[in-house]
Amino acid sequence: MTDQNAAEEKQSDKRPANWANIGILFSTIAIVIFVCAFGYGYFQLSQASLGLAESVNELQRRAADNQGSIAALQKSIGDMQQIAQKSQDLAAQQEQVMAEWRAAQKGDLNKWHVAEAQYLAKLAEDHLQFSHDINTAVLLLQQADKVMQGVQDENLNEIRKSLASDLVSLQALPQVDVTSLFNRLSAINHQLDQLPLPVSPLKADEKQSAAAIPSGLPWWKAGIEYSRQVLSKIVIVRYNNSSALPLVMPDEKIFLYQNLHAQLESAIWALLHRNADVYQASLTNVSSWVQTYFAKDAQETRSMLQNLDELRKVNVAPSVINLSNTLQLFDNYFAQAAQTNATQ
Predict the structure, then answer these.
(1) Residue 265: what pLDDT?
(2) How far apart, in whole angstroms, are the C-alpha atoms of residue 97 and residue 91?
(3) 184 and 309 Cβ atoms separated by less than 8 Å
(4) Which among 59, 191, 217, 326 could disulfide-bond with 162, CB atoms 3.0 to 4.6 Å apart, if both were Cys?
(5) Using CA atoms, how far apart are residues 144 and 177, in angstroms rounded to an integer?
């Protein structure tokens, strides 16, 4: 009994130890399960945060796109409003034109013809003052008179008389053929380089020759005469008029030709701009230099001087009349018509 009791006591001592091990095992398993659950939950929470951040970014991007679309839509609306305003203005202008046309059809069409004639007269005045184009001015005034032929209004008699007077005066003015003058000046400019420079050898009477020493002179006078004759063979002195310029050296002739070309180009500019003073001064300089520096007996020089003299006789800027009187009569006509309409 004693041994049996001892064995039971040992078994009873082992049972608490086994239960303790089992409790530790379950605690460990519970901790692992908790850690895994916590890690899984944290992972799911991170995934949810990332998805939420992406959603927020997508919403912000869409909001920015929507704002851009709204701005473009507002700009389109503004453009459409401007177009609509322009359309309204254009419609108002068209309505005004139609109203004026309807008024003209009711008996005010004569003023349109007179206004057209006034415009043509102003164009003629501009051509006269700015380009000296007499031919175009004559054509414009003739057309203005033709426009007013169908207008039955006694108040236009003075205007038509003034137009007729202007036409007669313009047709009596000298005509300047600018194209022909330009071509002649250009041809002369190309011929300048062909002008010959003079060759000035000693003439026979200028050559010094030895003369016999008169006999009977004292020895000292004979020596002086002999010395003079010897020196005359070494040093040759010629006398020119004080107004004559020296001859052009061969290496300096290029500058002479360049100056001549510059003067002729100045004359061409003056012709195109109708500047009579510059035109005359330039041709006078060219003619003077040709007479001074080039061979006067050469055919090229004589032909050049003749052409220059003919061109100098042309007045490139003849005085033209102005149409101020006629234009003033037009203004008076419309002022009187406006006053008559106001009183009615």
Answers:
(1) 92
(2) 10
(3) no
(4) 326
(5) 26
| Nearest Cα residue to 198 out of 244, 163, 156, 236 | 244
pLDDT of residue 154: 79
The pLDDT assigned to 284 comes to 92
Low-confidence ranges of the chain (pLDDT < 50): 1, 201-210, 235, 242-245
* Separation CA 96–CA 131 (nearest Å): 37
CB contact at 8 A, 127 and 137: yes
Q: Report residue 72 as tokens.
A: 């473009």
pLDDT of residue 281: 92
- Rounded Cα distance between 283 and 266, Å, is 9
Q: What is the DSSP string of 307-331?
A: HHHHHHT--SS------HHHHHHHH
Residue 195 backbone phi and psi in degrees, to 5: -70, 130
Using alpha carbons only, how large is the chain's radius of gyration in Å? 57
Residues of 288-303 as b/e, b for ≥16 C-beta within 10 angstroms? ebbeebbbeeeeebee
- Report the chain's terminal Cα–Cα distance, integer Å: 158
What is the distance of C-alpha 280 from the center of its chain?
A: 30
Q: If you search the block for the tokens 């102003």, which residue do you land on?
A: 122
> Quick one: angle between helices 299-312 and 178-191, nearest 10?
150
0.90 exceeded by pTM = no
- Nearest to 307, CA basis, from 196, 180, 199: 180
Of 118, 138, 119, the C-alpha closest to 128 is 138
pLDDT at residue 110 in the model:
75
What's the confidence (pLDDT) of residue 205? Answer: 44
Q: For residues 185 and 267, is the Cβ–Cβ distance under 8 A?
A: yes
For 106, which DSSP code? I
**Unique residue bearing structure tokens 């040759």:** 236
Helix (H, G, I), strand (E, B) or coil at 337: helix
The number of CA neighbours under 13 Å toward the Cβ of 193 is: 5
